[in-house]
Every structure is written in structure tokens, then in C-alpha cells.
Amino acid sequence: MNATSWTFADAYVTEDDVLRTARARADEVGVVPISAGSGATLRFLAAVLEARAVVEIGTGTGVSGIWLLRGMRPDGVLTTVDVEAEHQRLARQSFKDAGVPTQRARTIAGAALDVLPRLTDGHYDLVFADGDKREYGAYLTEALRLLRPGGVVAFDNALWHDRVADPAQRDDETVAIRDLVQQVADTEGLVPALLPVGDGLLVAKKVWVPESGD
């Protein structure tokens, strides 16, 4: 795919003023949100899953959260975790701008690996990770516990600025993402795909496990 076609595809679903304002807030605090194409993919996944419960690792200023909420059921609740309380304050403003009722977006300030173990096993339809790349492997472990059978885990930056595909790139973040991509491919009970949207979106479905005797 050439650059023109990739740009066309990534911008296929356009963003409204609410999302553009959330992006402007991200620029102000140095946060890099997901692309419009990745956001549209998250909304699609949430809609296909008819998601009622979603976990987001890395709130930012609410760009990805808005996309997710727009795909979820009207009664769905997004639980979003970020170590930066100020980013979450801006995200709550973005959610308000989007008309999201306060009870539908639960923001938790804290380190993901401190917060995730407190969440309920097997309760969530979708887990989206856009946090510390060096912790992606640990996020996968937590996601597999949190997801119901049939649920989906998604990781942003799975191509990491074209570095993951280049074996000469050996910095900590690139190696962690490269290891995650391989781990997801090798994990029994996952149906994976690596989508070339945005900076790469790695997705995997947790398959249903038949009960004994079925």
C-alpha cells in the first residue's frame, strides 16, 4: 500500500469538532492520541461486540475514549486508567463535550499495573492498551484475565513508527512491542490480527473455551 492510499484509508472516517478539540488538548500537554483510523477501528470493535464494559489503559485527553464510547452500548461503561491526573481532567472535559453522561466514563488515576489487578475477572468485553510500551506484555496478562470469552484486546503503536519491523532497532520499547506481537501470535486461545491503521493496531479475540462434556 502506498502512502496516498494509507492516508486515504486512515482518514476515511472523519472526526468532528469534539474529537478535534480533544486532539488540541492532547497537543497542549504533549500527548500523542490514536489516529482517526485507529479510533474508527476501536469504535467498530466496540459496536460489533455490543460492548457494555471496556477497559482503557492510557486515558490521554479522551480521544480514544470518545471513539470507544461511541461504539459501545448506550448503557456501556468505560473504565479508563492513566497515571496523569491532569490528563484525565482534560479527558473528562472532552467526554462532557461529547455529551457522555458522567456515569458512563469511570476515570481512575494510577499506574495501570496497580489498578488492573483490582478489576473484576472475566467482566470486560474489550481492553484497549495505549500506555507504557515496556509494560505491554504485562498488560496482555491482565487483559486475558479481565476479558470474557469472546472479548477482544487491542494494542496501539504495534508498528511503533516502523521500528518493530526493523530487526536492527533494539531499544527497550521496540523490543517490548516486538515481543508482544510474537507472544500474541503464539498464545493458544487467541485469534490475532495486526492491522496497519495509525501506528499499527494489534487485536486479538479471546476464544470461547468449551465446557467439559460439550
The helix fraction, in percent, is 40-55%
* Percent of sequence in beta strands: 15-25%
Quaternary structure classification:
single chain
Query: Order of strands in the sheet with the most strands?
Result: 3-2-1-4-5-7-6
Overall structural class, as computed from helix and strand content, comes to: alpha/beta
Strands, count = 7
Order of helices and strands: HHHEHEHEHEHEHEE
Shape: globular
**Tally of separate helices:** 8
Rg measurement, Å: 17 Å
Distance N to C terminus: 44 Å
Q: How would you characterize the largest beta sheet?
A: 7 strands, mixed
User: What are the low-pLDDT stretches, counting only 5+ consecutive residues below 50?
Assistant: none
Which whole number gives the mean pLDDT? Answer: 95
Protein name: O-methyltransferase
GO molecular function: O-methyltransferase activity; S-adenosylmethionine-dependent methyltransferase activity
InterPro entries: Cation-dep_OMT (IPR050362), SAM-dependent_MTases_sf (IPR029063), SAM_O-MeTrfase (IPR002935)
GO biological process, one term: methylation
Describe the structure.
This protein has helices at residues 3-10, 17-29, 36-48, 63-71, 85-97, 112-115, 136-146, 172-186, and strands at residues 53-57, 77-82, 105-109, 124-129, 147-156, 190-195, 201-206. The chain is an alpha/beta fold and 214 residues long. The longest helix is centred in the last third of the chain and has 15 residues, at 172-186. One of its GO terms (molecular function) is S-adenosylmethionine-dependent methyltransferase activity.
